[in-house]
């Protein structure tokens, strides 16, 4: 793709291979800008579930903080491994996995002793029953064509009784323009249109793909992946958070949910 070409945004089908290839390339190209823009908010060793700033230190969605010590934890879509560093500081044994080589280079830049693995979430390179917990803060799940394949892989590598917690853009957000101001407060598309959002180059090849699922779809996917849904958290926008992050903002966050966090158990 030529450097002066602005990708075309559209809605069209995009399968597993195209989504994986496009998103690996997008995150490799944009990791530097992402970490520069959001690194201060994310911190080097903080565990936040989304732009609202819901902090695992207080939310304890993986379980009481005091019980994390000694547990094996897989972070999927780890980016620069901020969440994994938080887990390690509390005595857990995390592994940070990401599709993007450049994101993992930022993890190396920040430092720490967390093992880093470059792999696709639909084919986790771990033996059955390797982990006690798995987590993903806006990683992997929105970017794959078949989320059930991810969930089945996560279930496979979890031990019985393990927990899987992941956050995604709240499905209702797909009906609104991705704008933080008043223009983002009016419904502009059908909530029920599952057609993926695709940015493509001048040849029509995808360079970014994000997949929409309704709230009901997400619940059914969790069950189809072999999990029991035990909580669905929709973080409210806190008064201390005055930032805008893409389409997330205090204005919108006080009116409509921006993030959905699914807490799932493997029986």
UniProtKB/TrEMBL annotation:
<dbReference type="GO" id="GO:0008168">
    <property type="term" value="F:methyltransferase activity"/>
</dbReference>
<feature type="domain" description="Methyltransferase type 11">
    <location>
        <begin position="74"/>
        <end position="166"/>
    </location>
</feature>
<feature type="region of interest" description="Disordered">
    <location>
        <begin position="1"/>
        <end position="24"/>
    </location>
</feature>
<keyword id="KW-0808">Transferase</keyword>
<dbReference type="Pfam" id="PF08241">
    <property type="entry name" value="Methyltransf_11"/>
</dbReference>
<protein>
    <submittedName>
        <fullName>Class I SAM-dependent methyltransferase</fullName>
    </submittedName>
</protein>
<dbReference type="GO" id="GO:0032259">
    <property type="term" value="P:methylation"/>
</dbReference>
<feature type="compositionally biased region" description="Basic and acidic residues">
    <location>
        <begin position="8"/>
        <end position="24"/>
    </location>
</feature>
<dbReference type="InterPro" id="IPR029063">
    <property type="entry name" value="SAM-dependent_MTases_sf"/>
</dbReference>
<keyword id="KW-0489">Methyltransferase</keyword>
<dbReference type="InterPro" id="IPR050508">
    <property type="entry name" value="Methyltransf_Superfamily"/>
</dbReference>
<dbReference type="InterPro" id="IPR013216">
    <property type="entry name" value="Methyltransf_11"/>
</dbReference>
